[in-house]
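anyone seen this seq b4? input:
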Amino acid sequence: MCESGRTIRCRRAAVRCVSARLALMVFALLLMANPSAKAQPIVRIGVIDRMEGSIARGAQLAAKHINETGGLAGANGARYEIVVAVASPDNLEIATANMRQADVIAVLGPSSPDAFHAALPQLQDLGVLVFSTVSSDTLLLQDTSGRVFRSVARDAVQSRALATYLIQSLGLSQITTIQLDAASTSSLIGFASALSELGAGLSNLLYDEIGNDLVSIANQVAARQPESVVIYGPPLLAAQSYNQLRSAGFAGLVSYSQAMDPRFTSIVPSDSLPGILVATPWSFTSSDADSQQFVWDFASAFGTVPDAVSAAIYDAVGLFAEAYRRPGSLADNIAALRRFDGIQGSLSPGTLPRGETSANVMITEINEFGTANAVASYRGTTLSTEIRAGVATATPTAQPSPTASGYHLTIRSTYQNIRSGPGLNFDVIGQLARGTRARVIGATDDFSWLVIDFRGQWGWLAAYLVDAVGNRNLVPIILPPPTPTPPATPTVAGPSSADLVIVNVYPQRVTLDQQMTVNVTVANQGLAPAGPFAVATSFQPGGRYTAVNLPGLSARQQATVQLQQNLSGATGPQSVIIVADLNDEVFEGNAGEENNRSYAYNYIADREVINSGTWTGSSGSLDLDRNGNVDLSWSGSDLVALNGAMYLITDFGAIDDAHHDAIGPSLANASAFNASRLSKALIGFVSGEDRRGVIQVLDLRDDGSLTLAYRMYR
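predicted toks r here
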């Protein structure tokens, strides 16, 4: 008779119960056969995967590395050996029973979205940590335990990173999406939302088996000829859609998140694959040193390169190990972690919704040999690294020292186009050759485009294509000229009334105790003109109300207004709702009224910065607050605080996440850090004059060359 309380119930057919018993006996014998159990206490992690699967291999390699370095550290100071217990996903009931029998304290997998959703109730009943590599946005909505964690960036985050890459890095503005199933709706919404925030529109074509077919959709795209098409849906249907697009004559850029899936590549001709963009949590082609070492270790162990699932599981075991060495609940410990350096990048579960551990995304491009090469990596929508022709261009390299004459740029390409405005839709007014140096006289608010004096007129250059040095805080912000009117393209019919909506708000950081200006772009996406209306919000900290009146807005027109205010209070992240048509003066219909209060403006309120920039050298010193006293020195092996003290910040992953009040003067008790502690370090600094600053190590090379980014507050 089956034991009561087990997953396999006594009422099951006898033959099934016997099968379960046999499986449990075999599983238990395998565990008992482990000779290392006699030498060291054991902690078991369960894996629901095939023995040669990505989850199993990622977990096994992580356990191997932890065991080789002394084992898993417990909060009580003891050391444990990690044993990975693998169960086949073919029968999820038996697999979860195996997990219970093995007394695991964490379960990884299964990898299939359908299998994970089916097994989730039984996994929750185990009462242990559960890590999933399923990226579906709805995954965590089903968790009632608080112990389920996702080890990859969710679909909406990946879509938002893709949108950022298309708009900011490639300069595209005409984008069409093809939606092939209802399951991809949440991902598509994340993509559309990111496009809106970046000031770009979207045309979506929805596949309907009854109302249209893939041929008609492809013909519509070919007629519009957008710059890019992004496909959402299952691989088999996506492959057919892609083939029809090419057959219809569309030659533009295509993005599809599952383009490396065999179900997609088996249908698409190999010579049609190059150029497709793929958003993924991680790629083995990453140039990051930790990723390269992981790829080498994985290939040495298993004879093949790892995929994104293996990297995510390797990170999941690392998060588990970090939580295990701390007292208290494992789930709460993981949820509170503010920085963990993983293979996928810096992981900060404590800054994400409960259950999420990563917001890291890589954009890859399939090459002529069928490999998806990394071209950019993101943390959320913040660019971490951009790679062109194998060179990580966003990671600063050795630069000339900043000079007193201001902020300068140097042309990196053979020839660089100079444009009449900040965007690829503006005219090219000339070119500059590689090595040409020019003084930067202005920039967009986010410094993505720089302005120089080009033959007596303003010339605009994309910042990521040049090398820039100096103090950019002294550069004035220049409002862009009006956007050129694009050629007419077919549009999707909008509401017959006016429809006011906020589409973009910037900057992402505002300065307290002085007048700030927030630029708000509002659009009338309806088909009727809008009369007078107001745009308003109450800025934080302090709840300071600000509004501006507009005389009206024609149909399909947009305008940028400025909300100005002087804020005081504590520094830190803020989120407020920007309201269009504050007093409901414009008739917009029900749908139009609902989106007037839907734009959340997220920003960091911070203190005034007196100096910021980057520094590179094999040795040297820095006067961070520019008061004539040297604050830091670098010897090639040690970073020394000469005028103040410093400490390692663990609450944030990047310099742009930090702010004045997050820097703790009482924590600054170190006078020096050796190079061994500086890799990817974020450092809080307090000068002898009690000024606070933050420093991030961007690059540290074997020859002693160090690259820092820094920000000092008044």
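The chain has 13 helices and 41 strands. Residues 588 and 594 are 9 Å apart (CA to CA). kinda curious what u guys think
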